Amino acid sequence: MTPDDERVSPEPHVVVLFGATGDLARRKLLPGMFHLAISRLAPDMRIVGTSLEDMDDAQFRELAVRACREFSSRPADDDQLEQFARQLHYVPQEKGAEALSAAVKAAQAALEGPTRLLHYLSVPPAAAIPVIQTLEAAGLVEGSRVIMEKPFGTDLQSAKALNAAIHTAFAESQIFRIDHFLGKEPAMNILAFRFANGFIEPIWNRTFIDHIQIDVPEQLSLEGRAAFYEPTGAFRDMVVTHLFQVLAFVAMEPPTALAPEPISEEKNKVFRSMLPLNPSNVVRGQYRGYREEPGVSATSDTETFVALKCEIDNWRWAGVPFYLRTGKCLAEGQRIISIAFRNPPRSMFPAGCGVGTQGPDHLTFDLADDSRMSISFYGKRPGPGMLLDKQSMQFGLEGTADADEVLEAYERLILDAMHGDRTLYTTSRGIERLWEVSAPLLDNPPPVHPYEAGSWGPRNIEDLIAPLEWRLPFERAWRARE
């Protein structure tokens, strides 16, 4: 993870974007590459899009310009859009490997000097292997890199089979399994906050920390994704691919360097130390109305909500529960990590003074794009007597001069892949270990409980965490008060 201003600029790139007309490409990938291009953070590049739609270069360019106008997080003027559009080309998937190879060679010829190929597979899981076979047939594997979207299998057996199939064409060093959660500025700030500050690391352990919550509720419903979501569910969609990865950043030991191999090794140590999930420590839910969604079975048992307790059996974290929660159609859309510290002895404080009435001290990371962090603690209320209130210190990136320089998650991860930096990407070993940890739950899932859309999930989630409490929605109300 070399500072951006110290990295050697990579070679000119041809990006082959599979699924180029899909939702992710329109909302994130094309606007992200547009920003990388006009900001000159990325090297000179050409983008060859391909998908099932039958269109030509002009139509694809029009689609991309519309996407950038609608979804870019930054202003886009006509000249910049026109310049970006000239870098785009399109090959319908039905034309086959030979046509794709010819388009890539033409794009390479338009760039000066040696070029590098970067393939982005924005495709459904079932299409990943056929795409890799197309790349092999087109002769586009050697020396290239490939970015793959989750999910990386559905269980241990399928993950091993997928990795084996990918490895027939690509070496592990060529594969970039993307997790956009780790590309977010606040996720990376976890590493900076933990390891760059002398007052934090000595208390980042079971002696001082009582429990940790990673809470990622979503307000969105299925949004027409039944074909993907029905066989997947919230656990496979969010926990294995996102929340466990964030957990590793929170729990890992200090790496020898902020570089791909040391960080991957420390993350994998966390995964190896995780105890297998106990189904009795998992709550599954389904929002009322899910079975009426288009494409959903009337008897579907797919969970749209999951909350669980997991444990890490190592010297640092033994006995500290990690509570994870995510789901659809919930009360709010949030992404927080909340570290709850152990309570000190309080016998010196008089009864009724307020100490302890608002829960333990917390350090909270907000993983939303505006990147906030807060520390809550008890302090004396001004005035006579010893009355205590919960107080907080907060830091928000939007209040700094560097806020406009923040890259969105996909932008950062695409740029890292161009540099060959796999620090924020996931390895095959890590993925397979997480499916191994998940096996008891997948083999014996608890029943699905209904919950109302707009709630915080099934009622029995309180039993899972008792006698503790979920930090949300309290954390949100607390910050609003400030």
UniProtKB/TrEMBL annotation:
InterPro entries: G6P_DH (IPR001282), G6P_DH_AS (IPR019796), G6P_DH_C (IPR022675), G6P_DH_NAD-bd (IPR022674), NAD(P)-bd_dom_sf (IPR036291). The keyword NADP applies. It comes from the Bacteria. One of its GO terms (biological process) is pentose-phosphate shunt, oxidative branch. Gene3D superfamilies: Dihydrodipicolinate Reductase, domain 2, NAD(P)-binding Rossmann-like Domain. It catalyses: D-glucose 6-phosphate + NADP(+) = 6-phospho-D-glucono-1,5-lactone + NADPH + H(+). Keywords: Carbohydrate metabolism, Glucose metabolism, NADP, Oxidoreductase. Pathway: Carbohydrate degradation; pentose phosphate pathway; D-ribulose 5-phosphate from D-glucose 6-phosphate (oxidative stage): step 1/3. NADP(+) binds at G19, A20, T21, G22, D23, L24, A25, R26, K150. Its EC number is 1.1.1.49. It is an enzyme of class 1 (oxidoreductase). Residues 191-466 form the Glucose-6-phosphate dehydrogenase C-terminal domain. The keyword NADP applies. Substrate binds at H180, K184, E218, D237, K328. Residues 16-189 form the Glucose-6-phosphate dehydrogenase NAD-binding domain. The active site is at H242. One of its GO terms (molecular function) is glucose-6-phosphate dehydrogenase activity. GO terms for cellular component: cytosol. Catalyzes the oxidation of glucose 6-phosphate to 6-phosphogluconolactone. Belongs to the glucose-6-phosphate dehydrogenase family. NCBIfam families: zwf (TIGR00871). This is Glucose-6-phosphate 1-dehydrogenase. It comes from Hoyosella altamirensis. The gene is zwf.
